[in-house]
């Protein structure tokens, strides 16, 4: 927010000076801002009239306003020694402190001046402007009102008042007091209807608060000239993006791009080209965006705004390392660049370089105090590494008369950005309403996750599974280990081993069947919405049976907001030995299905996800039968640290349970971050 320093030109009329025309030319030069010529004029005039006080004052003003405030200050100080009670010399002397940006010194001097001359407009206005330069906007506004009482409607005072309100509004935005900021900005329209700077600032506040329609209204009010019409269209395109209407944003950006060819303003042209490229990226037209950005690079070179476009393209397409290089190049030429600093922080976070991401975000906040996006990134990182407790309670039943009640408590304790620990306890009561058989299982585990490299993690878990049934019981160790990595961008790979005990129903619990899984999960994404997921698993069981599983899914993301994904799934399952009276164990089982998933927000803090699939399944060489499954999840963010939700799922897929029955489960989840910040936050902040 720029600060306004008002210039007061004092023309002192003494002994008929104004009746003469000797200094009229100099007065005009001062008034028009030709300070260098005014300095020469009054310098020459004083050679013949060295004691003319008016000429001395005007010369001092010309010197100070021509970029030499210290010399002007010395000149006025010398005059004040000869005329200690002269108001005109005092006020010019005090104003010279403003030219030299010595606002603290000026504040004390002006305070004394308004005490001596409370009804002098120039003194009151000068004091108000001094307070404004010190960003004491509320006090400055009080004094500007006093000045306007002395000279109602004075243009200089009204202009000062405008910039004071702009400054105060900016301070309110920084403290995230958006409602008050909007009130202050709107008050400016009382004196300056449709003021350009005010409309731009007001639109920016509306964008921050995501009041998209209000932002667009402000931009439309701005469009009263050819240039400002393009500025307005560029702003509306951004508003549409924030409002999640990216297709509309692209249409508006195209309209702006077509209009800008008739404009000679290079800055507006560059902003328009930049917005069009951004709109292509928002709409995931990555090939077109890259070609256009390359053409901009050929035309304008690697200017910072072109580098920012290249970096944004990389962030959207998963080429994060290239984005980081572009952000570093921006910062090399402008260390205070907002795009460079926050962009680098986001890139480091995406690369898993968490401590560096913290440092880059904090650097951004040191330059742009209380900036909302930077604060949001800090909260996002903290949320990922803050310790939490999660509780799940569920009830399930199937058409084999099995029911189960379960609770699952997880405590996650990240001790550093590389090392996390987790403790889990699960209690499950299973019973069969037909046979009245019951079983209780208690499973307690503790695990660690260690990030060996930013994109390479090892996860280990160990614990005990204790089962009690019909007066009998046993305990079995639980083990899990896996490696999680991203071998290349848009790819995820997990390789692991797991030892668990079958606990779906009472009959299986009594048989103490231990399973050892050896598995691989691989996901390949793309920049055009197509993805492929594959799971391979080999299982060896304590009853000497073996199982092989293949699951593969080809999916396409059709929409982003809300997220709409659909695709085809195929599953193959084979057991070495068939024991159908104990559990579902075909020699061969196949299933193919079409699935669709939609997820998004239905209010500011509430989200939903619905996944449904239908298809055909075949057991052994039996006839094919239809299958259907559905899963729904509702979540609500009660506070920044407390969230909860409900879920439900149903499936009649034969392999969904160990017994091959229709299966239904409903449950509730709560998650509480019991610390606002990670345990290690203080150690990172001190580095």
TrEMBL record:
It comes from the Bacteria. This is Tetratricopeptide repeat protein. TPR repeats lie at residues 19-52. InterPro entries: CellSynth/LPSAsmb/PSIAsmb, TPR-like_helical_dom_sf, TPR_rpt. SUPFAM superfamilies: Porins, TPR-like. Keywords: Repeat, TPR repeat. PANTHER family: LIPOPOLYSACCHARIDE ASSEMBLY PROTEIN B, TPR REPEAT-CONTAINING PROTEIN PA4667. The lineage of its organism: Bacteria, Pseudomonadati, Bacteroidota, Flavobacteriia, Flavobacteriales.
């Amino acid at each position: 927010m720029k600060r306004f320093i008002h210039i007061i030109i004092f023309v002192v009329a003494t002994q008929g000076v104004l009746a003469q025309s000797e200094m009229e030319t100099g007065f005009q030069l001062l008034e028009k801002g030709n300070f260098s010529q005014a300095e020469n004029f009054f310098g020459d005039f004083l050679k013949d009239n060295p004691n003319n006080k008016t000429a001395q004052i005007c010369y001092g003003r010309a010197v100070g306003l021509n970029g030499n405030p210290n010399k002007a200050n010395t000149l006025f100080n010398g005059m004040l020694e000869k005329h200690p009670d002269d108001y005109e010399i005092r006020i010019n002397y005090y104003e010279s402190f403003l030219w030299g940006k010595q606002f603290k010194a000026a504040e004390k001097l002006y305070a004394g001046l308004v005490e001596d001359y409370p009804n002098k407009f120039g003194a009151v206005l000068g004091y108000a402007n001094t307070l404004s330069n010190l960003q004491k906007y509320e006090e400055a506004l009080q004094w500007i009102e006093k000045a306007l009482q002395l000279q109602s409607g004075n243009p200089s005072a009204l202009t000062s008042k405008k910039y004071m309100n702009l400054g105060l509004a900016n301070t309110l935005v920084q403290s995230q007091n958006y409602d008050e900021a909007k009130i202050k900005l709107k008050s400016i329209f009382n004196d300056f209807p449709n003021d350009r700077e005010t409309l731009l600032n007001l639109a920016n506040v509306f964008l921050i608060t995501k009041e998209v329609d209000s932002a667009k209204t402000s931009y439309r009010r701005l469009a009263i000239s050819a240039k400002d019409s393009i500025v307005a269209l560029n702003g509306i395109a951004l508003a549409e993006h924030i409002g999640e209407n990216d297709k509309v944003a692209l249409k508006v950006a195209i309209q702006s791009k077509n209009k800008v060819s008739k404009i000679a303003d290079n800055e507006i042209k560059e902003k328009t080209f930049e917005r069009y490229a951004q709109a292509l990226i928002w709409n995931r037209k990555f090939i077109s965006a890259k070609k256009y950005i390359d053409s901009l690079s050929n035309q304008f070179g690697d200017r910072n705004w072109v580098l920012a476009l290249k970096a944004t393209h990389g962030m959207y397409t998963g080429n994060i390392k290239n984005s980081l290089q572009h952000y570093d190049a921006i910062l090399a030429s402008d260390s205070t660049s907002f795009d460079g600093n926050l962009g680098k922080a986001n890139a480091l976070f995406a690369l898993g370089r968490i401590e560096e991401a913290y440092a880059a975000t904090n650097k951004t906040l040191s330059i742009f105090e209380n900036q909302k996006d930077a604060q949001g990134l800090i909260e996002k990182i903290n949320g990922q590494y803050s310790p939490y407790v999660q509780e799940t309670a569920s009830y399930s039943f199937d058409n084999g008369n099995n029911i189960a009640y379960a609770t699952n408590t997880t405590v996650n304790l990240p001790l550093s950005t590389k090392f996390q620990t987790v403790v889990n306890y699960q209690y499950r009561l299973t019973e069969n309403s037909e046979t009245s058989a019951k079983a209780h299982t208690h499973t307690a585990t503790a695990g660690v996750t260690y990030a060996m490299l930013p994109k390479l993690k090892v996860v280990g878990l160990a614990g005990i599974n204790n089962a009690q049934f019909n007066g009998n019981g046993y305990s079995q160790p639980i083990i899990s280990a896996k490696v999680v990595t991203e071998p290349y961008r848009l790819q995820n790979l997990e390789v692991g081993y797991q030892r668990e005990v079958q606990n779906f129903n009472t009959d299986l619990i009594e048989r103490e069947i231990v399973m050892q899984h050896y598995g691989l999960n691989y996901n390949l994404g793309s920049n055009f919405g197509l993805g492929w997921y594959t799971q391979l698993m080999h299982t060896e069981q304590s009853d000497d049976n073996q199982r092989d599983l293949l699951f593969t899914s080809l999916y396409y993301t059709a929409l982003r907001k809300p997220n709409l994904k659909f695709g085809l799934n195929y599953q193959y399952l084979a057991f070495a030995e068939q024991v159908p009276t104990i559990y579902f164990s075909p020699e061969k089982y196949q299933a193919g299905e079409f699935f669709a998933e939609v997820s998004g927000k239905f209010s500011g803090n509430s989200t939903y996800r619905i996944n449904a699939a239908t298809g055909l399944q075949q057991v052994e060489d039996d006839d094919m039968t239809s299958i259907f499954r559905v899963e729904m999840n509702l979540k609500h963010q009660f506070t920044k640290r407390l969230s909860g939700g409900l879920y439900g799922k149903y499936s009649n897929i034969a392999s969904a349970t160990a017994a091959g029955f229709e299966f239904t489960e409903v449950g509730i989840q709560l998650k509480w971050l019991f610390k606002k910040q990670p345990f290690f936050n203080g150690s990172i902040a001190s580095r």
